[in-house]
Amino acid sequence: MDEEKGLIFNIQKFSVHDGPGIRTTVFMKGCPLQCLWCSNPESQSFLPELLARDINCKGCGACVGVCPHGAITITRNTGRIINRQKCDQCLFCVQSCLYGSLNQCGQYSSVKDVLAEVLQDKIFYKNSGGGITLSGGEPLSQSRFVRNLLVDCKKEGLHTTLETAGHCSWNEMEKVLEFVDLILFDIKHLDSGKHRKATGIKNNILLENLQKAAARNNIWLRVPLIAGFNDSADHIKKIVALGKDVGAQKISLLPYHEGGKSKCRQLGTLYGFSDRKAPDDKQINKLNKIIEKADLTVSVGN
After folding, report:
1. Are 143 and 180 in contact, with CB atoms under 8 Å apart?
2. What is the per-residue pLDDT across 144-180, written as a single tens digit (0 to 9) for each?
3. Nearest to residue 25, comparing CAs of 160, 127, 143, 155?
């Protein structure tokens, strides 16, 4: 039987924003949420997919010849055009491109291979109090692989962190949390209707799993802060109350940015949140003070 593999779209070394110390963040591909502002839209699909960086295209035409569906055309006037409706993600074009213009997002990797890469920087984890962070996408959507990876990480003495929105069965989550030292729990919005409108799902399962997880694991709450959506003082006070209730060690405010816009272009999809922005510094400082006044640790950007 082949060793079980996980679908990963990035491994980021020397990460200092995904938990304590210097860390290696392993980004799992696939997410049941479809957040309109997602900074990693390439993480949403549960399959490998095509990323097209048009700026690198030399117009050689190699990709046109190998596409079995005639989805790619190149002309002098228009440059390269990919018909995404015809494209079935066979990714033959990626193999033909010599200039890094067409790339595969998502690779299947074994626990052994991922762990080997993570352990290359073990000395930095030891000296800084860091370790490995599993992020995504939603890592709990690949709970079996993630659990197996975390088991081996704990055998190596690594500090383990899980970033999650908590959308899975408690049975799946509980099996993973046995090997997790810290959870970075994403809170998009506490109003279930607004949460569904912005992410595609209600938040009841997420909040139920947060309560159960907090009874056994250390928790940091992370809030993607978006002006006019979830940055009101009243909403932050509700998050503070939730943080107090679950014993959160910290609340992290992550100001919105448009990092996902260019990635959507590479995916050939529309970016659905272009009219939004981050709160201004005055509003962020106001929210900071609300959290500090409640005797909770707060950070901005990590």
Report:
1. no
2. 999 999 999 999 999 999 999 999 999 999 999 999 9
3. 160
